[in-house]
Design brief:
The chain is of the alpha/beta class. It has two domains: about 60 residues, no CATH class; about 200 residues, Vaccinia Virus protein VP39 (Rossmann fold, 3-Layer(aba) Sandwich). It has ten helices and nine strands. Helix 1 runs antiparallel to helix 2, helix 1 runs parallel beside helix 3 and helix 5 packs across helix 6. The longest helix has 16 residues. It is globular. Its EC number is 2.1.1.297. It catalyses: L-glutaminyl-[peptide chain release factor] + S-adenosyl-L-methionine = N(5)-methyl-L-glutaminyl-[peptide chain release factor] + S-adenosyl-L-homocysteine + H(+).
């Protein structure tokens, strides 16, 4: 079998499951990331080892495993990141959160940033790649996730540091930061029926779900982190559940933040909130 034949075969086999467009996209990712073959390149014959890999890969995809876990690679903001089931697969809306931060803080600024619940490290790594003068840090409860984040930093040669900590139990933002950013767990169990089966079956639950009776749990904690960890005038950026972003906005207003605004993503869903710590509101360390 040749690379072009395999491309067609994967697309054809996945079409009943994913549809025409997504099956072609998944096939492209598999061929590029696992076989080094790009559409338009001269086809080549697969080795015996590659044919075995193609068979196991297709079986995993047909079983519903996300292509990023199959290839071990996720594209995010121009970076190729290692991912595995210890971390969430970075989403396009998280790229939009990064873009918002970059819009607010141009290339002539020097900023200190902490990402709480960093997972693969996608947010601080993307910020560091675009703003080399910044100091970026990530914190996560999961040591397995931190191993992935640290490997990504090494592979990309980016000076982002990562540390273990529990945002619900301790202060993550020690010192004074210009920016705190987080994509916290925000899905109550009652919304499981609205989620893709592949997400439910393969991605880490601790990074997705929040107690049904307290869906704003992590946002309240982040509001407190901001008062202790932000410089006066510093900003807190969060990704939110599209169904309760207005409640998150009100929470930050009630917590004493100023210029609290929310933003829609490219799918026209309310998915991001930014809050600013007023002058004089920062707690003395």
């Amino acid at each position: 079998m040749r690379t072009d034949d395999l491309t067609k075969h994967i697309t054809r086999e996945l079409r009943p499951l994913l549809g025409r467009g997504e099956s072609a996209s998944v096939s492209r990712l598999v061929m590029e990331d696992l076989f080094g073959y790009r559409q338009g390149n001269r086809p080549r014959k697969l080795t015996q080892e590659e044919q075995i890999l193609a068979w196991t890969t297709l079986n995993r995809l047909k079983a519903g495993e996300p292509v990023q876990y199959v290839t071990g690679i996720a594209d995010f903001f121009g970076l190729q990141l290692k991912v595995n089931p210890s971390v969430l697969i970075p989403r396009p809306e998280t790229e939009e959160l990064v873009e918002w931060i970059l819009e607010d803080h141009n290339q002539h600024t020097v900023r200190s940033v902490i990402d709480i619940g960093t997972g693969s490290g996608c947010i601080p790594l993307a910020l560091q790649a675009r703003r080399p003068a910044w100091t970026c840090r990530g914190v996560d409860l999961s040591e397995a996730a931190l191993e992935v984040a640290r490997e990504n930093a090494r592979r990309l040669d980016l000076p982002v540091t990562f540390h273990q900590g529990d945002v619900l139990e301790e202060s993550m933002a020690e010192g004074r930061y210009d920016v705190i950013v987080s994509n916290p767990p925000y899905i109550p169990p009652s919304e499981r029926s609205k989620m893709d089966a592949s997400t439910l079956e393969h991605e880490p639950e601790m990074a997705l779900f929040v107690p049904e009776e307290d869906p704003l749990l992590f946002y309240r904690r982040l509001a407190g982190q901001g008062h202790h960890g932000l410089k006066a005038g510093g900003q807190l950026y969060c990704e939110t559940n599209e169904f309760n972003s207005e409640e998150v906005l009100k929470l930050f207003l009630d917590a004493g933040y100023a210029d609290v605004v929310r933003r829609k993503d490219l799918q026209n869903k309310w998915r991001m909130v930014r809050a600013t710590l007023p002058e004089g509101e920062a707690t003395q360390p």
